[in-house]
Amino acid sequence: MKPDIQNPRGQLRQALSLLRRAALPDQHHLGWAVLWLVAAALLEVMGPIMGKALIDEHLLPHHLDWPRMAALLAGVVLTGWIASGLRYLQLVRLSGLAMRSVMRLRQMVYTHVLLLPMSFFDRAITGQLVSRVTNDTEAVKSLYIQVLFVMLDSTIVLIGTVCAMAFLDWRLMLIVLALLPAVLLIVWLYQRWSAPAVTRARALRSEINGQMAESIGGMSVLQASNAEARFGQRFAKTNQDHYTARLAELRANAWLLRPALDMFNIILLGAVIFMFGQRQMTATEVGILYAFISYLARVIEPLIQITMQFSQLQQSVVASARVATLLEEGAAQEHASNRASTGKAAANDSSAPAVSISHLNFAYNPGQPVLHDLSLEIPQGDFVGIVGHTGSGKSTLLSLLLRFYPAPHGSILMHGVPLDDIDNERFRAEVGLVPQDPFLLAASARENIDMGRSLTQPQIEAAARAAHAHDFIAALDQGYDTPLGEGGSRLSVGQKQLIAIARALAGAPRILLLDEATSHIDSQTEQIVQVALDELRGKVTVIAIAHRLSTIRDANRIIVLNHGRITETGPHEQLMQIDGGLYQRLYLLQQLAA
Ligand SMILES: Nc1ncnc2c1ncn2[C@@H]1O[C@H](COP(=O)(O)OP(=O)(O)OP(=O)(O)O)[C@@H](O)[C@H]1O
To answer: Among the atoms of ligand 1, which is closest to the Cα of residue 392?
Structure first.
C-alpha cells in the first residue's frame, strides 16, 4: 500500500527511509558523527562545572592555589574551544556525506524516471519532474544538516546539560525541566500553523518550474498565438501565491516561534534567580548560580535551534516524501519484471508472421475503448501502411506494438512469441521506431545516430546511407562530428527525419515502425524516404502510419482504421476499387488538395 503523502507522519516515514537508502554506503561516517557529537557535548557540559569549582573552591574562599586555578581556567576555555573544533569537523564530515547522498539520490531518481512506463508521462508535467531531480533532492541535503547535525547535536547538548544540572542541584533542575513542556506546546502550535503553508509553497515552486519549462518548450506556439500576456499573468498569479505561502510561513516564525521562545528564556532565568532569592545564599551557592545561568543558555539555545529548524525540516520532509513517492512509481512492466530471455523468445520462429494480432481490445481509461477486436497478421519483410482519421487509434496500435502500454496477454505476437515474453534487450534491438517528432539531441550527427549504443563508424555510415542521410551529413562542415544544435536546430525538418530513420536502422531492427514520419517533410524528402523504405522491402518488416497516403501507396498492404476497428485492408489498387470506401475517399481528397 502506498503511504499517504498528505499525512505528515507518512511523509516523515518516507523521508527517513529515503535518507537511510541514500546514506547506506556512508553508514560508518554516521557512527563517527554521533560519537563526535557526544564528545563535543560532554566537553561543553564540563566547562561550567570547572567554572563552579574555580569560584566556589578558590575565588570566594580566597584559596589561591595558582596551578590548580590556572588548570581550571584553562579547562573552561579549552573545553569550549575543543568542542567548537569537533563540531566544525563534524559539519565538514556531515556535509560530505550529505552531498554524496544527494548525488546518489539524484542518480536513483533519474535512472528510475528512465524506466517509468509511458502511461506515467501521460500525466507527468516535465517541469515538476525536473524539479524532483534537482530541487527536491537538494532539499534532502538540508535534511541531513538539520536532522543529523543541528537536531542531534542540540538534543545531545540538552541531555548533557540537564544531567549536569541534576548533578549540581536536582531541585533546580526539576524546576527548569517543569517548564520545558511549554516549549513543546510552542513547537506544536508553530507546526500546526505553518505546515499547510510549507506544503503549499513547495507545490507552488514546482508549479513555477512546470510553467517555465512548458512556456520555453512551446515558445514558438506561445508567441505566434499572441499569448505572452496571458502566460505572463498566469505566471504572476502562481508567483504571487508562492510569495503569499512563504509569507504565511515566515509570519508563523516571526509572530509565534521567536517571541514565544524569547519570553520563555526570560521566564526561566527569572525562575532560577527567584529560587536562589528564596534561599539563604551561602558562599558555595554562588558557583552553582554561575553554573546554572551558564547552563540555562545551553538549555534554551538547543531548544531554539531545534524549533528553528522545523520550518526547513518540514520543507525537506515534504520534498523527500515527493522524491520517495516518485521512486515508488512502478517501473514499466518490462523493466519491473526484468525478464530474462525465455526459451520461447529465443526460439523465434523464422516462418512465423512478424506481427500477429488477434482480438485485441484496448482502452486508456476503463469504459472508453479505443481499439475494438483487432485481428491482423503481417508477414516478415512486408511493408504495411496504416491509415485512418484522426483519433482512429493508429498511434495507440503502434504504442501497443512498442510495449508502451500493457496489451492483453497473448493478443500480440512478434515472430510467434507473445510480446510480454520477449526479453527487453532483444525487444528493443528488434523493433526500431521513427517517431513523428524526430527528437534530436544537442550532439553530433554521429551521436544522434548512435544513441549510446557504441556502434562503429561503418555501422553508423551504413545506416545513414540506407536512410539516404549520408550525403548531407558528409557535406556538413565537420561531417559526422558536426554538432547539430539543440533539437537539431541546424538541420531542416526533412534532414532531422532522415537522421531519425538512420538511428532506427542503425540498430538493425527486424521490424521498423514509422509514426507519421513524413507528415512534416517536403515532397522531395518524402520521395527519398519512399526510396529508403522500398529498399528495405523483404529485409525489414515496415509498419508505417501515414497521413500522407503517397508514402504508403506502394505498401504490400494498407490497413484502414475507423474508430478503432479495421474496416478495409489490402493493397492500394484493391482499396481504390471499393466505391465509397474510406481509403478511396481519403485518397481522392488528398489528390484534390494537391
Ligand atoms: N495517452 C492517452 N490517454 C488517454 N487517451 C488517449 C491517449 N492517447 C490517445 N488517446 C485517445 O485514444 C484515441 C485514439 O488516439 P490515437 O492517438 O491512437 O489516434 P490516431 O489515429 O493516432 O490519431 P492522429 O492521427 O491524430 O495521431 C483518441 O480518442 C485519443 O483521444
So the answer is: 21
**Ligand 1 atom 7 nearest Cα:** 364
Residue predicted with more confidence, 314 or 508:
508
Cβ–ligand 1 distance for 364 under 6 Å, the answer yes
Closest Cα to atom 12 of ligand 1:
370
Is 115 within a domain?
yes
User: What's the CA gap between 37 and 147, in Å, rounded?
Assistant: 13
- For 256-271, give the DSSP string: IIHHHHHHHHHHHHHH
The three cell numbers of residue 422 are: 520477449
Ligand 1 site-directed mutation target among 362, 364, 586, most atoms within 8 Å of CB: 364
Distance 222 CA to ligand 1 centre (A): 24
- Residue nearest ligand 1's atom 28 by CA: 391
Q: Which atom of ligand 1 is nearest to the CA of 393?
A: 18
Average pLDDT over residues 77-101: 86
Ligand 1: distance of its center to the CA of 371 in Å? Answer: 10
pTM above 0.80, yes or no: no
Which residue lies with its CA nearest to atom 25 of ligand 1?
Answer: 390
Q: Is 390 in the pocket of ligand 1 (CB under 6 A)?
A: yes
Q: Answer yes or no: do 328 and 387 share one domain.
A: no
pLDDT at 386 over 90: yes
Percentages helix, strand, coil for the chain (3-state, rounded to 5) are: 70, 10, 20
What is the per-residue pLDDT across 439-455, written as a single tens digit (0 to 9) for each?
Answer: 888 889 999 998 888 88
User: Between vectors from CA 382 to CA 377 and to CA 384, what angle results, nearest 5°?
Assistant: 70
The alpha carbon of 546 and the centre of ligand 1 are apart by a number of angstroms equal to 15
Grid cell locating 348: 523465434
CB 580 within 8 A of CB 406: no
Q: How far is CA 71 from CA 52, 54, 57, 65, 299, in A?
A: 13, 10, 13, 10, 26
Residues with Cβ within 8 Å of 104's Cβ and at least 6 positions away in sequence, in order, are: 22, 25
Residue 523 lies in a domain: yes
Q: Is the CB of 121 under 6 A from ligand 1?
A: no
**Is 243 a domain residue?**
yes
Q: How many CB atoms lie within 10 A of CB 280?
A: 5
How far lies 105's CA from each of 323, 417, 554, 557, in Å?
9, 38, 51, 50
CATH number at residue 245: 1.20.1560.10
Burial class (CB in 10 A: 0-12, 13-18, 19+), 233: exposed
- For residue 587, give its domain range: 383-395+428-593
